[in-house]
Write a structure and sequence with these properties.
heterodimer, A: 2 domains, 14 helices, B: alpha+beta, Alpha-Beta Plaits, two-stranded antiparallel sheet, two-stranded antiparallel ribbon, 2 helices
Amino acid sequence: MKKVIMGNHALSYGAMLSRAQVIAAYPITPQTQVVELLSEMCADGTLEAKFIKVESEHSAMAACLGASMAGARTFTATSAQGLALMHEMLHWAAGGRMPVVMGDINRSMAPGWSIWTDQNDSLSQRDTGWIQFYCSSNQEVVDTVIQAYKISEKLMIPSMVILDAFALSHTYEVVDIPDQAKVDAYLPPFNPPYRLTPDDPHAFGGLTSSDHYMELRYRLQKDMEKVPALIEETGREYEQMFGRYLGQVENYQCDGAELVLVTSGTAGYTARVAVDELRSRGIKAGNLRIKLFRPFPFEPVRSILSKVPKVAVLDRNISYGHHGIFYQEVKSAMYGQPSPPAIFGFIAGLGGRDITKESFKEIADYTLKHDRPEEEIVWIGVKK
Amino acid sequence: MSKKKDDKRIIFVSETEMPPVAMSLGSMLYNKTGAWRNIKPVIDLSKCIKCGICWKFCPDTSIDIVEEWPQINYDFCKGCGICAEECPEKCIVMVEEEK
């Protein structure tokens, strides 16, 4: 069934179709229509789930963790400062191997207060051990939530499904809502190997000496390394059942390109328009959209970019005192490769400033004009 | 009051079999926290009025009621002293543990 829905509701539909059993949220800004619609679904019986109202985002994640540990499929959503307040609990989720799926709407961090988009909120949680997906359309959001549960529950690692504030969260698009019976066939009920139950009481996450701590972390990393192959497997299975492939990256005209624009989130689709226009001017451009950020998709990124002479990475985020974060990661992935491209880093769109096709033309012009980047960071659209 | 649960202990042959998350390998019945204690509560039953307040307040459920009388389970009592503080008849005293 096709519906015209906003990005926030795409997350709600994803959680509903996945039959989330416990949803916990703090119902005030930066919370959005994501849990508003879910609370309505819980109230009118569309979704058989327990909706827990808590007093902070830290508690929202804590409630999800308890429920997950007891064997329930759990969902929550947040943004910006709310995500930052969850920080400690994010480590608990990953370290405790609780496969919570959370929607994060990328909003800029305060101060100054902002409800507009950039990626510093989710990228600040890069090292907590969560899988991170950056989505570019409302369709991709619905599909990815369902796939994320499948991957998370198989590996017992939590997932964050991320979308741009307003550029996607409040943008209405046509979405093909998957059929519930088919989703049920794709995503079996959650059945964890160990759970919190009075029938077989255990304590979880307790004191762990140096005899065992490192092994737990080694296993988390080893399981993280299984994510890319599992995305391919579950993405193909999704394609067979629903007609849409869900992969780690999206390659748009990168084969044989002289310049590839590396993007994430909604900027990826804007980049495609720019690529088409550059190609009409005779410039062989392409767009590599990175959807999976953690674990980093080394294999597809290396195989696509090692055949390209020039790469321009667009970041809607910044690691102060260093570079844009996707730029750091792409450079790190390409370091030591047999024929690494010249890689340029650009920052644009902080605090929700528009990234337009003209931004990409400016990026393309700079990259084609220079052999190497002359500045550590090239800022696009900043008023200097 | 002193229900004994059938609890299982998980035994791993090698480290590769261990669960991916830190968890106790048995229930808390195996974790005898009484070893943490420096001072222990001792009840003078001749003054006890069987009110059950000590049983209710014990944060570690280490006081059982056995045939109506309170009995401290020293395998698990950590010696916090809440029972002695709350006892209305002051018939519980905290005594230094000896080696």
